[in-house]
Every structure is written in C-alpha cells, then in structure tokens.
Specification:
Length: about 220
C-alpha cells in the first residue's frame, strides 16, 4: 500500500510540473532590440514587438514584453531607450545628441523626443496612463510621470526644466521656454495643474490636489 501511494504521488507531482511548464511556454517571451547602426526589429512569442533604428549615428534600445510595442529611434547622434510591458506602447526618439527614455507599464502609452545637445526627455506611465516629454534645444530637460489613469506632459524649448507629475485620474502639464526658467506641475485624484514659465499658473483641484511652481508664478 505504501509503494502504491508513493507512485500515485509521483504521478501527481509530474503532472503538476508538466502543467506549470506548459503554462510558462504558452505565456511566450518578450523581445529586445539594440542598434548602433541601421534598423533592427523583432517579434516576440508573447505578441510583443520592438524596433531599434539608427538613421545616422547613436545608440537605440527597445525592450517589449506582454503584448507590448517598444520603439527607439536616433537620427543624428544621441541615445534612445524604450521599455514597454503589460499591453503598453513606448516610443523614444533622439536627435542632435539628446537623451530620450520612455517607460510604459500596464496598458499605458509613453512618447519622448529629445532634440538638442545634452538635452534630456524622460517619461514614465503606469496603470492605463499617458506620459509625454519633449525637448527642442540644447541642455533642456523635460520629465513627466503619470500613474493610475492619469495624463502628464512636459516640454522644454530652451535651457530650462519642465516637470509634470499626475496620479490617480489627474492631469498635469509643464512647459518652459525661457533661459534658466522652470515649470513644475503636479496633480492627484482628478486635479488639473498647468505650469508655464511665461504664463500665469493654473490649479484646479477638482476634489483632489493641484500644485504649480514656476518662474512665472505659483499656485495655490
């Protein structure tokens, strides 16, 4: 009786191991693309796609998993790095020695574009959010973060800093266009915040929070 029970247990253990292995295989794998010259693209067994494209010079990296799409493109010098997971889309572009980083998770969309020597565009979005960051002149910095169904946008059009952070169904926008100017916007739980270094700040809490700090003024 002892030997029979032991054999049955062994059969069950083997069946469980097989089931777990099959589940892992069915999940598929993501893909990674890296390029320092030309266009490199891949399709993953999990439905993901990546594309790393160097038009003239630079370095591009794209990492996609969980039925996501990641694109990284560099025109004339610079670095672009995109990461997408959990049914998301991430697109990073760089030119003129800019640095662009895009990260999207859990059904989110992210776009970054860094154009200018030593400029940086960084954006991160999670849980069904959208984040966008862009620079258009040397040494500019744009950073956006969006979480839990929010939208954040940051734009730098000079040697200036723009930061936007939105959480829990909020919206934040920050734009700077004056030398050494700054614009910082943050909002939570349905709030709306708009920051600019050339215009009056706008803060609409909508029952949540909204805050702006900029070289043109603050609110609340």
């Amino acid at each position: 009786m002892f030997h029979k029970r032991g054999f049955v247990f062994l059969e069950l253990a083997c069946a469980l191991l097989f089931a777990l292995s099959a589940g892992t295989a069915d999940a598929g794998k993501g893909v990674k693309c890296v390029s320092t010259s030309g266009d490199h693209s891949k399709n993953g067994t999990d439905g993901s796609k990546c594309d790393a494209n160097i038009i003239s010079s630079g370095k591009a990296k794209a990492d996609a998993s969980g039925s996501s799409t990641a694109d990284a493109t560099v025109d004339s010098g610079g670095t672009a790095d995109s990461i997408a997971s959990g049914g998301s889309t991430a697109d990073a572009a760089a030119d003129n020695n800019g640095t662009s980083k895009a990260k999207a998770e859990s059904g989110s969309t992210v776009n970054t574009n860094a154009n200018g020597e030593n400029s940086t565009a960084t954006a991160t979005a999670t849980h069904g959010s959208t984040a966008t960051s862009g620079t258009s002149l040397n040494a500019g910095k744009a950073i956006s973060t969006a979480e839990h169904g929010s939208t954040a946008t940051a734009e730098s059009h000079e040697l200036c800093d723009a930061h936007a952070t939105a959480k829990h169904g909020a919206s934040a926008s920050a734009t700077c266009s004056t030398f050494n100017g700054f614009a910082i916007a943050s909002a939570t739980h349905g709030g709306e915040a708009t920051a600019s270094d050339t215009a009056a700040p706008i803060c609409t809490p909508n029952g949540g929070t909204a805050k702006v700090r900029s070289s043109a003024g603050n609110c609340p």
